[in-house]
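Forwarding the complex inputs:
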Amino acid sequence: MRAWMAILLLAWFQAGCGKVWNDPYPGETPGLKTLYTVFEERPKHLDPARSYSSNEVEFTGQIYEPPLQYHFLKRPYTLKPLTTTGMPLVRYWDKAGRELSGNASPGQVARTTYDITIQPGIRYQPHPAFALLPEGKPRYLGLAMQDLKPINTLSDFKHTSTRELTAEDYVYEIKRLASPRLNSPIFGLMSEYIEGLDALNARLVEASKSQPKGSWLDLRPYEFSGAQVTGKYSFRITLKTHYPQFIYWLAMPFFAPIPWEAERFYTQPGMEELNLNLDWFPVGTGPFMLSENDPNRRMVLSKNPNFHGETYPADGETGDREKGLLQDAGKALPLIDRAVFTLEKEDIPQWSKFLQGYYDASGISSDNFDQAVQFSPEGEADLTPEMKAKGIRLVTAITTSSRYMGFNMKDPLVGHAGGEAARKLRQAISIAVDYEEFISIFLNGRGIAAQGALPPGIFGYKEDFNPIVYSAAGKRRSLEEARQLLADAGYPNGRNARTGEPLVLYFDTAATGPDAKSRLDWLIKQFRKLDIQLVIRATDYNRFQDKMLKGNAQIFEWGWNADYPDPENFLFLLYGPNAKAGKNGENAANYSNPEFDRLFALMKGMPNGTERQQVIDHMTALLRVDAPWLFGFHPKGFSLQHAWVTNVKPNLMANNTLKYRRIDPGLREQSRAEWNHPVLWPFVLMAVGLSLLIWPAWRQYRRHEESRG
Amino acid sequence: MIRYFLRRLLYAFPILIGVNLITFFLFFVVNTPDNMARIHLGVKHVTPEAIEQWKAEHGYDKPLFFNPQQTGVQTVTDTLFVDRSVKLFAFQFGKADDGRDIARDIKTRMWPSLAIALPVFVIGLLANITAALLMVFYRGTRLEYAGVAGLIALMSISGLFYIIAGQYFIAKLWQWLPISGFDGGIDAIKFILLPAIVSVAAGIGSGARWYRTIFIEEIGKDYVRTARAKGLSELRVLFRHVLKNGMIPILTGAVVVLPLLFTGSLVTESFFGIPGLGSYTIDAIRSQDFAIVQAMVFLGSVLYIVGLLLTDLSYTLVDPRVRLT
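Prediction (whole assembly, two chains):
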């Protein structure tokens, strides 16, 4: 018996010496070109008409194909055809229906048309909705409840097929944006631009009421002028105004095609109960298809066998070739076979698995920052020797987003009603709140202090400084100057010159918890530099939203991520008619300046160029003086990539970059084997520890038994 | 006994209605249907019309408890509370706010929860009993004092510490097991081991202390003296007689939690990435998905009531003197 035990123990130890025990992918075939990554939050919608969050677009971007896409390598961000034969033909029309020239002023334009022609021969991924019976009728489009008894998931349907993509599928999706059953997040915005979308919504609301809930609402018979099929492979979108930024929307999954068969398939009785719907089982033409969908655990994208083919770009920006980003030029995409996304909500397991080689890339949380990154004396971020030894690469990019602290301009003390005094108060606070310090303390240096509303990477951004807050580049004005401004505003030494009362301001926030506490303490300290008492009004997110909608907040923090690379997408955050209070817009500060609004309307319709830059500069100057925002910071994204992952270039606009990634599975296998040796000495230690416990117990037992005789 | 069970089942109805009412009230004190719509529609470009449409589509456009636009009994029945509550009693949980069928999600997710909770329950019970009996055996010695001190130390440490320490040592430093995740079939064992070890270790301090108290009470009884007088060894006395009699409160205490094993652990599942009902509930609370929160609270209450009924039943099985009338 003892001999057997010894043999077993020896065998187990030997197994431990040679094999990896902690592999979290036990069923996976090694050697496949699979990308392993994470998703931190379960996506709610994978239907392109509904998905908007980054954690959803991460999937839909790879599966669905809108007409256009961003060039992977070129900067500034450039649009190029994805399923179309060329860029859309944009034409402007006046009220009388006469065509205008391309440089017509926005005021003249009554309608804009986008004529789009798609490539023939593009086919959808294999899907049961397209399966046909031998006689040519749809196989699965007239199912009864009992037909679904053996079905648990989509792969239980034995037959699949495909069909060619047509222009009608794009038009169908545009109609879906108006469907009351889908609640598309961009319906409100698009109905301001797409001709007849509002009216279509009204018709669909009525139609939906007259039909049983959950049944198929066939949108094909509902013609509307906003989107019309003009040929098998061509369609036209008509806008009721001049909105040049619309072209960027054509690169988002909202405008990806949906085959009517898929909607009909998923709306059959019993499908919803099986969670079979477009929200969970997309049908696209893109390079990948969702082959495994367990949003509670993992989601797997696999190569779409019907993908129409695309090649890796042959050109980029200066320096891309040297960085090896053009090595795969001309190669057929996608370069990987699969991508496995594992649900990982906690930082600790995510980071550990990355270091063990089980995730191919990782972000860096504050807790792990010092382990991963160190700064050179010049302030340049670099990897620690530990990371370098593993061959890990650091990829950084300033995000196209702005975080700011806003003043509610409807507030009598700090807003428009306060006049010049309030303006000086806002300027004084802008000087006192030291965002360079904030970035250093709370972001580990991952960000740059903002000088205006526009982030880097967006046309109109300039590497200058805000003269109201800085006396020179990087040199913040002194506190004395801020105090003087405060005194000019009527608050010498932070007290009301008239009443002698201390100046008390209120900061509304939804941030709570220990992390938020330290940030809020820091903020109180910044205001205290001017002897201003800052009172924190922390509340839950819902109440905070209510306060903002009602215009009851005084000072708040907010942020914005770019939808598309155009200054309009940031400057509209300060456009008067977009005020949040009362108008439910995105101008959270409720800022209103007629001159700014006039310039905004002008800038919106202008093409990028010197003239537009001048208008933007003027708008920025107005904002700097008025100071409705403390231009906070633009975060800097840091990500880590293992040596076996290549073709990584941050593209903050594109959401379909998975097809460009390249993986070296051999190097990954080798590294994983090297980095994951089970440590066996704790077993020995535990055995010894257990013996030390058992031995006195045994002696005690013997003594006890002997004493009983 | 059947009459007893029927009576208890009838008692369960007002309890469940009460629980449901409290859940409803608490949820809508901090959330309004408008807030829920905003969360689900995203933070950008949300119009009041979109909010109204979302509410209408998800049935949140009715008043909460009283509908002044209706007459008669419909003032009460045509409300969000009645709409959302009546179907629960037929175990029709409806759809989550993201459109997924809740009943199906519960059916899918209860197995990973059970896969963790069942071994933790069984191994934990055995470990606690063994530790408690050993301490009783060595009562009055330094070994017992050390054991009690150890248990107090174990029960004084936060549960989160066990999780972080387990992940750090066992998964990260020694690389014995995956740090998180889950898989189906036989591969599940690999992922269950770490959370199971951590959960058993976290529970042994309080569990063993409680059982020790039970056994110490038993060991002072007359039948133990008689057994000793018959010349039985101390081990035999403990494991044959004291254990058997001490099992009555232990088993009845354990039976009540048996049905709740399905609902999983909120914290453990979240930390170890187990796709069970515990993490399902936490996610729903975070995303303000009332339909899931209500369904899970209701299910938890039902299972607890079933557990109490099973406890009563187990009394009759382990103690013939007990009669349910």
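The longest strand of chain A covers residues 629-641.
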